[in-house]
Amino acid sequence: MLIRSRRAHDIATAEITPESTYLRRREILATALTGVATLAFGGARDARGATTPKPPELGPIIESPYSASEEPTSYDSVTQYNNFYEFGTAKEDPAVQAASFQPKPWSVLLKGRLKKPGSVPLETFLEGHALEERIYRFRCVETWSMVVPWVGIPLGDILKRFEPDEDAKFVEFRTLYDPERMPGQKRQTLEWPYREGLRMDEAMHPLTILAVGLYGRELPNQNGAPLRLIVPWKYGFKSIKSITEIRLRTRAPQTTWSEMAPNEYGFFANVNPEVDHPRWSQKRERRLGDFLRRPTSKFNGYADEVASLYAGMDLSKDY
Ligand SMILES: Nc1nc2c(c(=O)[nH]1)N[C@H]1C(S)=C(S)[C@@H](COP(=O)(O)O)O[C@H]1N2
Ligand SMILES: [Mo]
Questions:
Q1: Which CATH number fits domain 26-310: 2.40.30.10, 3.90.25.10, 1.10.760.10, 3.90.420.10?
Q2: Three-state SS string across the chain, please?
Q3: pLDDT of 9 above 60
Q4: What is the number of the ligand 1 atom nearest to the C-alpha of 142?
Q5: Which of 73, 141, 237 to mutate to test the pocket of ligand 1 (most atoms within 8 A of CB)?
Q6: pLDDT tens, residue by residue, 261-305
Q7: 140: Cβ below 6 Å to ligand 1?
């Protein structure tokens, strides 16, 4: 018990990078990016000097009407300031430690309360669906946010193909478990594999997508290649990366962060500036690249679309 709660505390603390450290890193980054070699490679140079080529461009993509109108955060910020504990716990780790990860071939196991379960190769899984670019606001539970041109497919469209039955009330997602390919899993920083969950109506909501790319290219490894969840009205930790298993369930699944620190992270994790995180306020956020903070909006600005899903619930209890 003691070990467990200490571990959860250490990790929860590691989730926040002090802003002074972060701002200093950005200065270093800005200096590194003036290097001509970086530009010649057409890739990004991270804070430790590693150069990673950009992933291949995706085929035809349609623009989504769900896109936000804000200015997107730079490609470099989106791909060099990440949370992905499978590749290290510091924000600049994944860009370096995931560089040699091979996300293909890949298949996703669909199981549970489905009439057509099975193991489906990524390509088959995506067949017949148009790729959409959706510029979404993305808010991490920590004090930072960004605006990302994700490329993906509505999760609901995909689930329908595998025919959920009437008892399907929740969806559970799991990340790949393979410590040889994901070295962070050799350490007990989290209970592996990373797990997340949505209620069925959240999963079927048209804002929820399975993302396979960003900025018109395949997903960089550090952002969850080859496919990850995006639920734009929830905190970033719901957006599980490198998914290998999707299971339809009757009851709510256990999720990684609410298991580690239940008083800090709940199942719903809707962006809610009115409810403080036990260790910091959630009233304001810093857009990556900005200097000043801005007020955080309820449901991350998507209240018109999703507030009705939670009618009658006390969102300070169901956080
Ligand atoms: N498998 C896995 N998925 C994950 C995480 C993780 O550590 N492992 N971190 C989560 C958290 S806390 C955040 S804020 C987002 C960050 O996504 P980004 O790196 O693309 O910005 O990924 C989420 N998905
Ligand atoms: Mo996060």
A1: 3.90.420.10
A2: CHHHHHHHHHHHHHCCCCHHHHHHHHHHHHHHHCCHHHHHHCCEECCCCCEECCCCECCCEEECCCCCCCCCCCHHHHHHCCCCHHHCCCCCHHHHHCCCCCCCCCEEEEEECECCCEEEEHHHHHCCCCEEEEEEEEECCCCEEEEEEEEEEEHHHHHHHCCECCCCCEEEEEECCCCCCCHHHHCCCCCCCCEEEEEHHHHHCCCCEEEEEECCEECCHHHCCCCEEECCCEEHHHCCCCEEEEEEECCCCCCHHHHHCCCCCCCCCECCCCCCECCECCCEEEECCCCCCEECCHHHHCHHHHHHHHCCCCCCCCC
A3: no
A4: 14
A5: 237
A6: 999 999 999 999 999 999 989 999 999 999 999 999 999 999 999
A7: yes
